[in-house]
């Protein structure tokens, strides 16, 4: 028994001795309580600068976006083997940073989401001012309202085959990052970092219905269960904008929330919203209906992606500057465990079928795979 468990048990015994009436229920709750812990299972190599990861809805495939390689790699989620690579044809562009010019490429993949029960994979392209969509079953895909196409080379490593594919391209705003499907499956919402907007795309036709102004550098997006209301984290405005999805109207900004909100999750019940703050290192729990902060926990180390177990009993957070992955108990809003990843963890996704957490380490082109094991106390 570790020190944390010893303190927990000692506290419970003290409470039960002081109040015998709570003996049976408290002891039963304690015995039936379940803690989990992360243990490193594997480390796999990726392309240059793995930015994000998303599992297919059936949890069988892991899609990893390699930002600087302009590629997406597909792994088997169970045995961790590389099965497919998608290398996007590069378009050279000139960019400026602090008045200095440098070369880059349009087709840098940032984030992805699935629609159509996993058949369509949507991906934002950092410097292309737009998104692409791929048919994961290999069917030729053409959307009625697409803006154009982007070429890519698809390699099937299992079959030893290679082919050129044309992916539908839809213009959004400048520097699209987070891309999210509404729970009803009808809209793809895209946070455009440098435009300060959110774009609304029809998931069936690819039609861009337009965009709304949010705040400076929008990133994380989440929705209420009925798909009517959305939330977007404005990184440099230090606010969270609340908007109507289908009328495309910004309702208001939640202010005084913390420094540099980056990632947002809403639990399955639609009651609690969890926001990771890159600037001050907190994860804060909001009441979705009241739009108020209810609790918080200090993580530190520039929080990047946060993800959760399906029941939202636990959160996992990337602590970028500490090279850590942090496990949080949402009931107590307390840190349960810190474990070292590799250099600069950025993306994260939990696979509930394999009970493994995958974390992309952007600094050294790897993915850390952790077993998430339950332990009965």
Mean pLDDT: 91
Number of strands: 31
**CATH superfamily label of the largest domain:** YVTN repeat-like/Quinoprotein amine dehydrogenase
How far is the first residue's CA from the last residue's CA?
Answer: 9 Å
Shape: globular
Amount of beta strand:
over 45%
Uncertain runs:
1-34
CATH architecture of the largest domain: 7 Propeller
Instruction: Determine and state the CATH class of the largest domain.
Output: Mainly Beta
Task: List the strand order in the largest sheet.
Answer: 2-3-4-5-11-12-10-9-8
Radius of gyration: 21 Å
Briefly note the structural class of the backbone.
mainly beta
By DSSP (H or I, 4+ residues per run), the number of helices equals: 2
Q: How many separate domains?
A: 2
**Which percent range fits the helix content?**
under 10%
The CATH topology of the largest domain is given as: Methylamine Dehydrogenase, Chain H
Largest sheet: 9 strands, antiparallel
């Amino acid at each position: 028994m570790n020190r944390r468990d010893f303190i927990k048990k000692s506290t419970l015994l003290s409470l039960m001795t002081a109040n015998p009436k709570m003996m049976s229920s408290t002891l039963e709750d304690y015995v039936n309580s379940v803690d989990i812990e992360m243990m490193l299972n594997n480390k796999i190599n990726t392309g240059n600068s793995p930015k994000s990861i998303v599992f297919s809805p059936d949890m069988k495939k892991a899609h990893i976006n390699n930002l600087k390689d302009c590629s997406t790699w597909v792994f088997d989620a169970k045995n961790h083997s590389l099965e497919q690579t998608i290398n996007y044809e590069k378009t050279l562009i000139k960019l400026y940073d602090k008045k200095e010019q440098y070369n880059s490429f349009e087709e840098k993949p940032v984030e992805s989401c699935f629609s159509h029960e996993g058949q369509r994979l949507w991906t934002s392209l950092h410097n292309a001012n737009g998104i692409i969509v791929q048919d994961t079953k290999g069917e030729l895909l053409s959307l009625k309202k697409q803006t154009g196409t982007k070429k890519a080379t698809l390699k099937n490593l299992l079959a030893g085959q290679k082919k050129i594919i044309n992916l539908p391209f839809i213009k959004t705003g400048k520097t699209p990052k987070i891309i999210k499907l509404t729970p009803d499956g009808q809209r793809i919402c895209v946070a455009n970092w440098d435009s300060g907007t959110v774009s609304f795309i029809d998931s069936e036709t690819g039609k861009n219905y337009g965009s709304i102004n949010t705040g400076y550098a929008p990133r994380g997006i989440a929705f209420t269960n009925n798909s009517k209301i959305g939330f977007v984290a404005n990184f440099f405005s230090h606010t969270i904008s609340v908007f109507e999805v289908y009328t495309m109207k910004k309702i208001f900004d939640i202010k005084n929330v913390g420094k540099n909100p980056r990632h947002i999750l809403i639990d399955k019940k639609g009651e609690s919203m969890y926001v990771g703050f890159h600037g001050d290192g907190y994860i804060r729990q909001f009441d979705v209906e009241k739009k108020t902060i209810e609790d918080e926990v200090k993580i530190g180390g520039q929080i990047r992606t946060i993800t959760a177990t399906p029941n939202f009993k636990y959160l996992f957070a990337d602590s970028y500057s500490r090279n850590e992955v942090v496990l949080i108990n949402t009931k107590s809003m307390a840190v349960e465990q810190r474990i070292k990843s590799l250099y600069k963890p950025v993306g994260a996704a939990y696979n509930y079928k394999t009970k493994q957490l995958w974390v992309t380490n952007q600094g050294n082109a790897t993915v850390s795979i952790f077993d998430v094991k339950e332990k009965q106390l």
